[in-house]
């Protein structure tokens, strides 16, 4: 795995920055230190990997801002061994963080080139999820449901009811909901038909689209 003292220094700065912005979970901060984020973006821009900003990747998609990844992960409250469904693999960085935290991850991406590329990097750094899937995540992954946690990293216009049904009782979903601007939303399935909802600030994600590509 390619790394350098300069990149390690930048990574340390990013972690201090995340701590200042309210990411207190030590395991998540450790994941940000251990997962080489520069491998998830184009080599010519590797130092940008440790700025707290979203960055363009292929096919008009983005690698989410580090704070957003850390914040969504903190809300998800992942424990070792939990079954986690991720919709929107993208670069694969969020996937790597979840695998590092010990989750059994099922990740779905609709764009074939991103599905392939993320799989290759995750394999190289030895943070492979249980399953990488090339598909439209709106369907979820019924045959492996129910999940302890579901994380969606693309914007949903309204609550994804089909996916909420794939949560265990007491399971949690973190999803950005809205059209141009999204509210980060945390759902907890408190019983078969009852979900608790909390919202946390405004975010901007690429839209969750239909069909695979
Ligand atoms: N966590 C990723 C975020 C990537 S952006 C990262 O930090 O790299 C969101 C991703 O969701 C894009 O790759 C996009 O192609 C994917 N996406 C959008 N709609 C989808 C759908 N219906 N099913 C699966 N993936 C989807």
Please characterize this protein's 3D structure.
This protein is α/β, with parallel strands linked by helices and 213 residues long. It has a domain at 57-203: 3-Layer(aba) Sandwich (Rossmann fold), CATH 3.40.50. 29% of the residues lie in helices and 25% in strands. Strands 5-4-3-6-7-8-9 form a 7-stranded mixed β-sheet. Strands 1-2 form a two-stranded antiparallel sheet. Helix 5 (112-124) links the parallel strand 4 and strand 5. It binds S-adenosyl-L-homocysteine (SAH). S-adenosyl-L-homocysteine (SAH) is lined by residues 61-64, 69, 87-88, 90-91, 93-94, 108-111, 114, 136-138, 153-154, 206, 208-209. The site of S-adenosyl-L-homocysteine has 24 residues, from strand 2, helix 4 and strand 4.
What's a quick, concise take on this entry?
The protein is an alpha/beta fold and 213 residues long. Helix content is 29%, strand content 25%. S-adenosyl-L-homocysteine is lined by residues 61-64, 69, 87-88, 90-91, 93-94, 108-111, 114, 136-138, 153-154, 206, 208-209.
Which secondary structure elements does this structure contain, and how are they paired or packed?
Blueprint: H1 5-20, H2 26-34, E1 55-56, E2 62-63, H3 66-76, E3 83-87, H4 93-100, E4 104-109, H5 112-124, E5 131-134, E6 147-152, H6 161-164, E7 167-177, E8 182-189, E9 195-203
Parallel strand pairs: 3-4, 3-6, 4-5, 6-7
Antiparallel strand pairs: 1-2, 7-8, 8-9
The structure holds S-adenosyl-L-homocysteine.
């Amino acid at each position: 795995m390619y790394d350098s003292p300069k990149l390690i220094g930048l990574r340390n700065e990013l972690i201090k920055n995340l701590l200042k912005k309210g990411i207190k979970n030590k395991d998540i901060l450790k994941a940000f230190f251990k997962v080489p984020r520069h491998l998830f973006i184009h080599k010519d821009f590797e130092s940008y990997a440790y700025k707290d900003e979203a960055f363009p990747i292929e096919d008009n998609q983005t690698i989410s801002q580090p704070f957003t990844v850390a914040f969504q992960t903190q809300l998800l409250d992942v424990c070792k061994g939990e079954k986690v469904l991720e919709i929107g693999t993208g670069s694969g960085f969020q996937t790597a963080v979840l695998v590092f935290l010990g989750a059994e991850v099922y990740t779905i991406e609709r764009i074939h080139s991103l599905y392939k590329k993320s799989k290759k990097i995750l394999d190289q750094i030895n943070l492979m999820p249980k399953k990488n899937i090339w598909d439209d995540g709106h369907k979820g992954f019924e045959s492996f449901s129910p999940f302890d946690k579901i994380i969606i990293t693309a914007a949903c216009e309204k609550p994804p009811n089909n996916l909420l049904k794939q949560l265990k009782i007491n399971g949690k979903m973190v999803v950005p909901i809205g059209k141009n601007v999204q509210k980060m939303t945390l759902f907890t399935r408190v019983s078969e038909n009852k979900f608790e909802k909390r919202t946390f600030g405004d975010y901007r994600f690429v839209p969750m689209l239909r069909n695979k590509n």
